[in-house]
Amino acid sequence: MARAGGSLTRRGLRGREVELAELQALIASVARTGSGGLALIQGEPGIGKSTLLAEAVAGARAAGFSVGVGKADELHHIVPLSSLAACVLHGDQPLLSGDAFADLARNHDQRIWLVERLAEAIEARAGSVPVLIGLDDVQWADPLSRFALKQLPARLRTSPVLWLLTARREPAGPAEEVVAAATGNLPTATVPLGPLSGAAIDQLVGDTLGAAVDEQVRDLLEGAGGNPFLAVEMLAGLRTAEASGELVPPGELVPPGLVVGVRGRLRSLQPGTLRFLQMGAVLGRSFGFHDAAALCGRPAATLIEALEEAVRAGLLDDDGDQLAFRHDLLRQAVYVDIPPSARKALHREAAHHLVSAGHQPIDAVPHILRGALLGDEEAVALLQRAADDVLSVTPGLAADLMTRALELVPPALPLRFTVGERTILSLTRAGRNREALSAGDRLLAGRPPLEAFSRLQAALGGALWNMDLAGELRRRTETALSMGGAAPEIGARLAALHALALSRDHDLVAAREAGETALRAATAAGDREAHILALSGLGEIAQNAGENAVALGRFAALSAIDSAFLPEEIVAHLHMDDFEAGERLLSQAADHAGAMRQAMMLWAQGLRDLGLGRLDDAEADFMTMERLEDEVQIPVQQVNGRVICSRIALLRGDREAAREHLVAAQERLAAKPNPGNTAAVRFLEAVHAEADGDIGLAVDKIRHVQQQGVFMRWRLLRDWVDSAIRMALRGAEHELAEDLGAQAVAHAERNAAVPTATGIAAQALGLVKNDLAMLERSAELLKASPRPLVRAAAYADLGQALLAAGRKREAVAALTHARGTFAESGSHAAAACVQHALEGAGAGSPGTAAKQRPVQGWGALTASEKKVARLVAAGHTNRSAADLLVVSPHTVNTHLTSVFHKLSINSRVQLANLVMTLPDS
Predict the structure, then answer these.
(1) Are the C-beta atoms of 36 and 29 separated by less than 8 Å?
(2) How far is the C-alpha of 589 from the C-alpha of 602, rounded, in Å?
(3) Is the pLDDT of residue 247 over 60?
(4) CB atoms within 10 A of CB 739
(5) 744 and 715 in contact (C-beta within 8 Å)?
(6) What distance in Å separates the CA atoms of residue 164 and residue 147, rounded to the nearest whole number?
(7) Which one, 209, 388, 502, 640, has least CB within 10 Å?
(8) Residue 4 above 50 pLDDT?
(9) CB under 8 Å to 880, separation ≥6 — which residues?
(10) Using CA atoms, how far apart are residues 891 and 869, in angstroms rounded to an integer?
(11) What mean pLDDT value characterizes the chain?
């Protein structure tokens, strides 16, 4: 606290003893348990949030914490990571160097990747000393910092990291979002600050004036409403008035010249000082001396006296690099006294100056948003440059900036269509597809020239595809192509989008021809975007046609152009049964994680683990993928992930978990009801109906899957067609079973070099025709397949057929092989079914079946969870553990969350202590 002409005396934090004790208890708990915590201090401006935060931080520093504290700024709440920057760059031992932070903020293209790198830096520090990260005024945090704050506390919950935040009360605001994300993952506390008591205000008076409170001063302070900042400002003004010899006239509570609140205090300043402060207030709570001088239109040297007076008056702090208003209320009081029209003009001038002085466009954006007028083309250009700079890290912000840029362009200007095209692309990148489509249709209603019309339709292609509107995409691209007038590269993009739309059609021959034509056009135009679209469309077409080798060629070429498509190439290798190549590419992706779509990489990893029978790891992969998609709010594979997790649970015999996954899949289908997702959920419903004994319903659901179109059927059932055939046969629907068998055979003919495809086709025919020889051939073919669960199912079918043929010895061998393979993967329910068949043949006993894992304790951990637990207990971070296990840090985090839940512990320290008591197995 400060006063005019000097510092106010301070004898401790007045009236906040209870709140401080609560924060001190949380600090002590984090240090003692080694686990994380979060506290939010809330209250009105000036109520003492920052002071309480500073007091708690000082206590934590004295207790040995590594401390990083920052403050969000109302005017600078757009610059990505600006709010968190001070938290990691400053302090006794900064978590990151300035160069490392700049590299982090510059050389990444995904929010998830950036958050993980920040987590690794904090986690590494927390491995040797508890860490406190404090952020003041979270309500003004920039979007990327808010995103990080919603992820980091939960991600670091097992490390001694304490998050102390302050914010104004704002229902459903950023601070509440951060607390909500942390709740349930780590201890959280909200510390509300109300008005100070009369006794505390009396103490403040004693601290300030060094005298007892008389009635006149007490009456005066009632106007502060228990707000300590306002009370101190009033008291500082009283000291100033007394020092100047001013007296309180009888009957007046406020003497001449006495400050009541902040605004009156400014009247004692020289006009030049007030003008200087007003320019600073336009620039923000913190600002550069030269920037304020430029807005004043005066040389910096002529404003030294104004600066000195502002600092003496306790209005500004000067740290040698930046000037800062001592409190937000001070800046706001100065700011609101500037006439609104002048404020707008000054903001526009500030934007021009900042860019001219070499600042980044994003630094000028807050002023553009406040000062630009319709038709301001320079402002439009600055907003576009800023949007380009932040698109990869905060696509939502980029979309907002481009939307504002579009609003500044008058409807009659051709520039509107150019800006509109980029606005559509930004909105699509942010996952705001409906807004993109709406913006595009409004622009198209303005009757743009043919070339602009083509560009807008091409820009809308991504949004239409994301919204599963393949028919509408086809109609629009055909219209644009038929009208002509497009530049060569735009024509190539439209052709590629047209082919992509046709990939969802029944005539895949025509789709392939359209895709080849589009690829030639893209090559001729030399347009990278068109090339990517064409290859993507051709890959989709090949997949939907069941041509695995062709699809692999397309996706390999696509990932060579853009490594973001590596997940598609990996999945294509898996479809070819080339798990070795898939493994190699997954390892390559782990070394270059920043350039990949992390959620899609986890999808590929999950399919790898599922194929290899690693059910526990596959489930962890898919659930981690869903979490990452939720974080960026762009769901892609969530329906399919839940369908697979439900089947995994059924294989294990966990009907309750299987039902929960089914419900989750149905809920997600409502949000993304495309044909593939619909077919997947209907198939899962069939599997559940069969498990419930309702074979009629199961057959109806399988028929529904068959109605989705031939490519959807085989894409879904390529590894699961045997289950569908068994359902059909149990329901006496032999024609349906024959149709399914023919589908498997057709797929094998297109993929004769894929052992899984040929083996499943033989298995399907063997089931449909009750052909023992064909089932024997299936088992023989599948010996070359890398998929153990597929082999186990074929051996189980073979064993049953051999039993029916009276060949008991061979049957027992086949069934025993199937049971062992199922049990090894954790498919306990499937193993139990085979065990039942063995017992019926008199070749097994109930005690032979594998025991299921318990739900709590060390024995409840999966093999991968035990590996992660031992590595973390030995001092590894998530990153170093992930590197050793060749998985992503996100997967390690998922495993670690499960470990802590199953072991009923909360910190890495507790985990290390527990592991020390275990045998060295």
Answers:
(1) no
(2) 11
(3) no
(4) 18
(5) no
(6) 16
(7) 388
(8) no
(9) 871
(10) 13
(11) 88
Q: Tell me what pLDDT residue 8 has.
A: 34
Query: What is the C-alpha to C-alpha distance for residues 179 and 625, in angstroms, rounded to an integer?
Result: 23
Please say whether the beta carbons of 180 and 186 come within 8 A: no
SS3 137: coil
188 HSE (CA, 13 A, CB side):
19
Q: Is the pLDDT of residue 499 over 80?
A: yes
CA 408 to chain centre: 31
pLDDT digits (tens, 9 = 90+) for 779-803: 999 999 999 999 999 999 999 999 9
SS3 content of the chain, % helix, strand, coil (to 5): 70, 5, 25
Helix (H) or strand (E) holding 689: helix 675-691
pLDDT in tens, 527-583: 999 999 999 999 999 998 889 999 999 999 999 999 889 999 999 999 999 999 999
- The residues pairing with 135 across neighbouring beta strands, listed in sequence order, are 70, 165
Size of the chain, expressed as the number of residues it contains: 921
In 214-345, the DSSP E strands lie at 286-287, 316-318, 323-325
Read off the amino acid at residue 590.
A
For residue 41, list its beta bridge partners.
Answer: 166, 191
- DSSP secondary structure of 853-902: PPSSSGGGS-HHHHHHHHHHHTT--HHHHHHHHTS-HHHHHHHHHHHHHH
* Mean pLDDT score, 472-490: 96
Q: Tally Cβ neighbours within 10 Å of residue 549.
A: 15
Amino acid found at 292: A
Q: How confident is the model at residue 239 (pLDDT cuts 50, 70, 90)?
A: low
The yes-or-no verdict on residue 243 having pLDDT over 60 is no
What is the pLDDT, as a whole number, of residue 107?
47
Higher-confidence position of 101 and 201: 201
Query: pTM of the full predicted structure?
Result: 0.85
Whether the Cβ atoms of residue 501 and residue 463 lie closer than 8 Å to each other:
no
Cβ neighbour number for residue 73 with a 10 Å cutoff: 23
Alpha helices by DSSP H, listed for 34-142, are 49-62, 82-89, 98-106, 111-126
pLDDT digits (tens, 9 = 90+) for 33-59: 999 999 999 998 888 999 999 999 999
Residue 78's nearest CA partner among 436, 404, 418 is: 404
Which amino acid makes up residue 407?
Answer: E
602 closest CA partner among 901, 892, 174: 892
DSSP 80: T
Q: What six digits make up the tokens of 35? A: 């686990």
In degrees, rounded to 5, the angle at the alpha carbon of residue 828 between the alpha carbons of residues 822 and 831 is: 50
- Token readout for 902 is 């199953």
Distance, CA of 54 to CA of 73 (rounded, Å): 17
Asked if 69 and 163 count as a contact pair (C-beta separation under 8 A), the reply is: no
How far is CA 855 from its chain centroid? 30
- Amino acid code (one letter) for 534: A
Ranges of H-type helices in 430-565: 433-444, 450-466, 470-483, 488-502, 508-525, 528-545, 548-561
Tell me: pLDDT of 9 over 60. Answer: no
Per-residue confidence (pLDDT) for residue 504, from 0 to 100:
87
Cα separation, 796 vs 830, in Å, equals 10
* Integer CA distances (angstroms), 636 to 62, 256, 669, in order: 48, 67, 11
Model pLDDT for residues 432-470, shown as the tens digit of each residue: 999 999 999 999 999 999 999 999 999 999 999 999 999
Place of tokens 């320019």: 279
Please give the structure tokens belonging to residue 184: 């349930």
Question: What local confidence, expressed as pLDDT, does residue 228 receive?
Answer: 80
H or E stretch including 131? strand 131-136
